[in-house]
Amino acid sequence: MKILKAAVFFFAAFVFYSCSSDVTYRKENLAADLINLLKKEYGIDSKVFLFPNTVYLDIDLGTDAPQKDTDAAESFKKINGALTAAIRTVISGDSEIKFAVVNAYPQDKSVLFRIIQNIDDFKSYYYMRISIDDFSSRNIIEIKSPSEAAAATLDKRDIRLEEFVGRLIVSSVMSSAGRNPFLAALLSNLKLDFESVKDGVLILRTNADLISESRNALSLQLQKETELCLKKYSGAKIERVIVFGTLKNKNVRLIDFKAGISAENKKVKL
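Above: the chain's sequence. Below: its structure in token form.
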């Protein structure tokens, strides 16, 4: 995960340099141009799916799941090459694309790597409206297991700001658990997924049978990350967060709180 995020920063610089050229990508030719660009500059075979606000790139990494650091570095290079090409064509074109999604999978389909990027965040970083630390915190990285990979690849639709923020909240919680040993101990083996957002209600799901201490830790971290994300994207309408999961082998509502209220000033509802 850390290697993947670091690689995103490196390729971001190239994106901005590339966008200073006079090349313009017309929206009616965007898919074909993007496929050709990926093949020419990165040797990547890809499929492109366009929606009014979202572009999806599906790429085959050409190898089995990376087992060594060198394999991982090569895979991440391809993933970020795809992201670079997507941002480059969108920013240098006349489309109204707001989000770029890269789905990358090895030949054995044993895992799916997904990166989701808000195009406006690239622009804000380029024009120094946000710092590199802020920019890094806005990258969504998801890793799907073999049982989820096929369905996740087929799940394509126009992304709205609320979905982006919902997925960012999940990604931020999982990243925090990886950085904080105490949180990692409480949330070990936690699997938290975005499910939907509608009418201001964000629905998340976990398959973990969480003990009381773990539920409290997850709820507090969710409240913290929700507040931080909504500050960054004030236009996102998320007023409530609900997490469904299992408790004593029953599917129940584990966490339910109103968004936008400081986590330090409210009790956890379980």
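Residues 2-159 form one domain.
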